[in-house]
Specification:
It comes from Canis lupus dingo. One of its GO terms (biological process) is phospholipid translocation. Its cofactor is Mg(2+). It is a single chain. By secondary structure, the protein is an alpha+beta fold. About 45% of the residues lie in helices and about 15% in strands. A 9-stranded antiparallel beta sheet has the order 18-17-27-26-25-24-23-22-21, with helices on both faces. Helix 11 packs parallel to helix 29 and helix 33 packs parallel to helix 37.
Length: about 1200
């Protein structure tokens, strides 16, 4: 039950998936508002009962009929999709993540590309250029670059979508067995439909959300691994209804099964399900314990049968995956705003020049007979036409090649990153601006591998090598049951076990072997443990290696091999674990008839229940402090001798509580308390949840780069906190604020309690929404003030919601990293999603922007490649805008001398090829290869990263600097040649000051200037950079001489009209002097400003570059060791992560395998052959 203070906004409505959890007790909404159970009519057969039963409950409107596909195609289940086209509301089981097919690719891709303002703008320009009255520029000058841009983008989209098609086909074409035509047949996943009966085998993936009907296990138990859902590799159990377990084991019974299910609509709650099965004139309640979810894997169960309830997009894992969002970088958005700014400037400049032309026509043009063109247009109309003419001529202010150049640079950068880290994407520069990292825990920070590291027995600590004893790992070859996986270095402990001098040592490992809920089976003669939590598995495996092997169990016995001697103990009671008790106990009777209780649990609860005279309490306490300082997960072990009379009296209370009809769990806990007292302490265990390599170092460096790391995990609070200390996200000096302690005081997350407040809340929903938003903002503001945040017990949906809150209220760039399907929504929500390719499948990888194998690669991805990519992209954009302004605004200055007639200052082919050939390669290579400092120095000085976080290298200020730089350059490019050409005569007496020679001079000076400018901007010189700069200049002159030759003019007289201009102009030394002077005036001030800037106001990067030789000579920088805690009062908690109920399963015998008929005999019914599932 929820307390009054935890009431949601809409108490009477369905649970709201969007509510963000703020503490452990508010992590998930519960389906509490269910109406009364509906009893179907009992006096008819199932089909008649189905037709005449009472209307379904409001919250259970999803109806599924077994073995009846036609039922789900009835008209009232059809939804209108498009006009009169209808489709069933029941999704098929095919998964679709691709965007295009063979028919839709071209129209849809072109439509998406023309939604980009720049592309649409150039399409309009192309149409305008086809109108002779307004165009002074050939149409091909726009068509050619536009086709290149569209083509490159389309090819990239096509390659990406083909990869999605392949992934979808791989999943959709997996197979399982489905009942068709009265028997099980191998069927592809994509052909499965709601209501189908399917059979799954051991290690099969579950293809849809299904109701478990029966299995090969006792009581139709089914063990599943839910790593794809919640990141946990430990097994969960599901159990079928008793009625289906009893009657639906054989194939012919499953074929005739006609059950009807009413349940909740598809939703994203992984651990909630409410529904009712109507069968045999009876209703049976259904809950999440009877549902197998898509994405899980069948384990430890030979076969099981199920009925499909939700398929495909309706499954819970798909509902949690979230929408695939089109991600754009911060620079993308800024670049778009700048392009819009250029649009405005372009329109204003064109309007001004058009007005100038109208005035000029009125004052001069109409009075100049030699300018008459045969058209009697008014000056204002001529000004209107010239407005569009200038829009066309000045169109290169909005660079069409900008977007395709950015895509090429990103693609190239992604290949470099891929060669380094085996990852690829096109959001590279965003990696240099990350403020917050949201990380999963299990499988991302940790390996999810628990290792028995140390222990304390009778006050003595064991686990490390001792002087005078044999070095190296302990040899367990003397133990026939040893699994060979445990690395333990304390040989003295083995001597103690063999000698038997201290009985507590053997008692310690016996307790580990007997007090647990692990299941065991033998595979090829080898013991195979199936544990409910990795911790418990590690402890039982440790006992096995030390000579106390758990061999078998029945409903009331457990068999242990004790140093080679097999002994069987009667299990009198299992006192199960729950999160409140934080311990579990087992009461056994030894073969000698003695009764003992063995208990293990958190030290906080064990120490409260120890006997006053229990020895080694202080020594064990000291050991716990040492283990805690090493961030090991600790557990205390204790035992108690019980008299027969005491047990009999307690057992009566225990049996009474076990059959209590109300408050059974509370009654059992009370009885447990009575027996779990006056315990004798044996010692403590220390387990290491192994971190991935390099996690503490990575977190330390990222923190120095002012990147805040949040851990979002489904684990319990103690486990999450323990990992926080292990990976040094938390330290001894960290002040920890717990959500439940601060939410009512600071965040005010609790809801109003009084009736008056509730009435006001109902009346003013808008006001409440505002308050909800304020609470969320308070949460984000407080959390962002912290150096680290750990959110525990969060669902996949809630992980994404936390990320979204930070994005929404902090406007910060976020990165999410995870390895399981439960991280997909978070990965899609963040600006950058990183998938870890680990043990939990490939869904996170396929949904991510980047993927690699280990968390430690993140430091190189961000601090090296991310920073480089950001710097390169910023340099590229600043230079790109500069060179286009310098190129285009020459037309503006020229217009003052041509009557504002929209005539071009260059040859048409020069305009066409300027951005495509003459100035593209050097800036592309700078965007791909440039680096201010080396990768080692980037990692050594994480503080260099902050320039990206603060947007220091590309913003509106930098944009306007580039604009002013371009304006000044264009003025120099135009007016120096103009002055040089006035009243001049060449060496041969010919006047070089004609329009075509003037155009060649400006173009030549422009090409040399912009290519030398890129040389000044380059920090990392290679042969390729130098070749591209001088090669671009040489290419310009080569193409110009070809285009100005007589031969090409003869072939295409209308397209090539500058015949002989280059050879005539450039043979004049005066022209070359003019070009050299123009280039010098453009570049020398830049050199001077750069020198003064680096000398007087050097950046951190400049300082490191200046001393890079000295830094390279120094010893390799090593991470300063973070201060480790010595004695600490904090306890690293043991992780009992399984749900309550395992002890009940064991003691009731429901989980104990009995001798059964062979599988063939069960399902063949004497005639049908057993068909094997084709492995996908």
């Amino acid at each position: 039950m929820k307390r009054d203070s935890e009431t949601t906004f809409e108490e009477d409505s369905q649970p709201n998936d969007e509510v963000v959890p703020y503490s452990d007790d508010e992590t998930e909404d519960e389906l509490e508002d269910q109406g009364p159970a509906v009893e179907p009519e009992q006096n008819r057969v199932n089909r008649e009962a189905e037709e005449q039963r009472e209307p379904p409950r409001k919250d259970c409107t999803w109806q599924v009929k077994a073995n009846d596909r036609s039922f789900h195609e009835q008209p009232h289940f059809m939804n209108t999709k498009f006009f009169c086209i209808k489709e069933s509301k029941y999704a098929n089981n095919a998964i679709k993540t691709y965007k295009y097919n063979a028919f839709s690719f071209l129209p849809m891709n072109l439509f998406e590309q023309f939604k980009r303002a720049a592309n649409f703008y150039f399409l309009i320009l192309l149409i305008l250029q086809a109108i002779p009255q307004i165009s002074t520029l050939a149409w091909y000058t726009t068509l050619f670059p536009l086709l290149v841009v569209l083509g490159i983008t389309a090819m990239k989209d096509l390659v990406d979508d083909v990869a999605r098609h392949k992934m979808d086909n791989e999943i959709n074409n997996r197979t399982c067995e489905v009942i068709k035509d009265g028997r099980f047949k191998v069927t592809k996943w994509k052909e499965i439909q709601v209501g189908d009966i399917i059979r799954l085998k051991k290690n099969d993936f579950i293809p849809a959300d299904i109701l478990l009907l029966s299995s090969s296990e006792p009581n139709s138990l089914c063990y599943v691994e839910t790593a794809e859902l919640d990141g946990e590799t430990n097994l969960k159990f599901k159990m079928a209804l008793e009625i289906t377990h009893q009657y639906l084991q054989r194939e012919n019974a499953l074929t005739t099964f006609d059950g009807f299910i009413e349940c909740e609509e598809p939703n994203n709650r992984l651990d909630k399900f409410t529904g009712t099965l109507f069968w045999r004139n009876t209703s049976f309640p259904l809950d999440a314990d009877k549902i197998l979810l898509r994405g899980c894997v069948i384990r430890n169960t030979d076969f099981c049968h199920g009925m499909v309830i939700f398929a495909g997009a309706d499954t819970k894992i798909m509902k949690n995956s979230g929408k695939t969002r089109f991600k754009r970088t911060k620079i993308d958005y800024l670049m778009n705003y700048m392009v819009y700014t250029i649009f405005v400037v372009l329109i204003l400049v064109s309007a001004g020049l058009a007005i100038g032309h109208a005035y000029w026509e009125a004052q001069i043009g109409n009075n100049s007979w030699y300018l008459y063109d045969g058209e009697d247009y008014t000056p204002s109309y001529r000004g209107f036409l010239n407005f569009w003419g200038y829009i066309i001529i000045l169109n290169t202010m909005v660079p069409i090649s900008l977007y395709v150049s950015v895509e090429v640079i990103r693609l190239g950068q992604s290949y470099f990153i891929n060669w380094d880290l085996q990852i690829t994407t096109t959001l590279n520069e965003q990696l240099g601006q990350i403020h917050y990292i949201f990380s999963d825990k299990t499988g991302t920070l940790t390996q999810n591998i628990m290792t028995f590291k140390k222990c304390c027995i009778n006050g003595q600590i064991y686990g490390e090598s001792r002087p005078g004893l044999k070095a190296g790992p302990v040899d367990f070859s003397w133990n026939m049951f040893a699994d060979g996986k445990l690395a333990f270095y304390d040989h003295y402990l083995i001597e103690q076990i063999h000698s038997g001098k201290e009985s507590e040592v053997r008692q310690f490992f016996f307790l580990l072997a007997v007090c647990h809920t692990v299941m065991v089976d033998r595979i090829d003669g080898q013991l195979n443990y199936q544990a409910a939590s990795p911790d418990e598995g590690a402890l039982v495996s440790a006992a096995r290696n030390f000579g106390f092997a758990f061999l078998a169990r029945t409903q009331n016995t457990i068999t242990i091999s004790e140093l080679g001697t097999e002994r069987t103990y009667d299990v009198l009671a299992i006192l199960d674990f729950n999160s409140d008790r934080k311990r579990m106990s087992i009461i056994v009777r030894t073969p000698e008839g003695n009764i003992r209780l063995y208990c293990k649990g958190a030290d906080t609860v064990i120490y409260e229940r120890l006997h006053q005279m229990s020895p080694t309490k202080q020594e064990t306490q000291d050991a716990l402090d040492i283990f805690a300082s090493e961030t090991l997960r600790t557990l205390c072990l204790c035992y108690k001798e019980i008299e027969e009379k005491e047990y009999e009296e307690w057992n009566k209370k225990f049996m009474a509580a076990s059959i209590a009809s109300t408050n059974r769990d509370e009654a059992l806990d009370k009885v447990y308390e009575e027996i779990e007292k006056d315990l004798i302490l044996l010692g403590a265990t220390a387990i290491e949840d192994k971190l991935q390599d390099g996690v503490p170092e990575t977190i330390s460096k990222l923190a120095k780069a002012d990147i805040k790391i949040w851990v979002l995990t489904g684990d319990k609070k103690e486990t999450a906190e323990n990992i926080g200390f292990a990976c040094e996200l938390l330290t001894e000096d960290t002040t920890i604020c717990y959500g439940e302690d601060i939410k009512s005081k600071i965040l005010k997350l609790k809801f109003p309690r009084t009736e008056e407040e509730r009435r006001m809340r109902t009346q003013s929903k808008r006001r409440l929404e505002a308050r909800k938003e304020q609470r969320q903002k308070n949460f984000v503001d407080l959390a962002c003030e912290c150096s680290a945040v750990i959110c525990c017990r969060v669902t996949p949906k809630q992980k994404a919601m936390v990320v979204d809150l930070v994005k929404r209220y902090k406007k910060a760039i976020t990165l999410a990293i995870g390895d399981g399907a439960n991280d997909v929504n978070m990965i899609k929500t963040a600006h950058i999603g990183v998938g870890i390719s680990g043990q939990e499948g490939m869904q996170a990888v396929m949904s991510s922007d980047y993927s690699f194998a280990q968390f430690r690669y993140l430091q190189r991805l961000l601090l090296v490649h991310g920073r480089w990519s950001y710097i390169r992209m910023c340099k590229f954009l600043r230079y790109f805008f500069y060179k286009n302004f310098a190129f285009t605004l020459v037309h503006f200055w020229y217009s003052f001398f041509n009557g504002y007639s929209a005539q071009t200052a260059y040859e048409d082919w020069f305009i066409t090829l300027y951005n495509v050939l003459y100035s593209s390669l050097p800036v592309l290579l700078m965007g791909l290869l440039d680096q201010d400092v080396s990768d080692k120095l980037s990692l050594r000085f994480p503080g260099l990263y902050v320039v990206g976080q603060r947007d220091l290298l590309f913003n509106y200020k930098k944009f306007f600097v580039s604009l002013v730089h371009g304006i000044l350059t264009s003025m120099i490019l135009f007016f120096i040649p103009l002055g040089a050409y006035l009243q001049t005569v060449g060496q041969d007496g010919e006047a070089p000051s004609d329009y075509q020679s003037f155009a060649v001079t400006i173009a030549s000076a422009l090409i040399i200037t912009v290519n030398f400018q890129i040389g000044l901007d380059t920090s990392y010189w290679t042969f390729v950079n130098a070749f591209s700069i001088f090669g671009s200049i040489a290419l310009y002159f080569g193409i110009m001489f070809d285009f100005h030759s007589a031969g090409i003019h003869v072939l295409f007289p209308s397209a090539f009209q500058f015949t002989g201009t280059a050879s005539n102009a450039l043979r004049q030394p005066y022209i070359w002097l003019t070009i050299i002077l123009t280039v010098a005036v453009c570049l020398l001030p830049v050199v001077a400003i750069r020198f003064l800037s680096m000398t007087i106001w050097p950046s951190e990067s400049d300082k490191i570059q200046k001393h890079r030789k000295r830094l390279k000579a120094e010893e390799q920088w090593k991470r300063r060791q973070v201060f480790r805690r010595g004695v600490s009062s904090r306890r690293s908690a043991y992780a009992f992560s399984h749900q309550r109920g395992y002890a009940d399963l064991i003691s009731s015998g429901r989980s104990i395998r009995k001798k059964r008929s062979p599988l063939d005999a069960i399902i063949a019914d004497g005639t049908a052959e057993y068909r094997r599932t084709v492995e996908s």
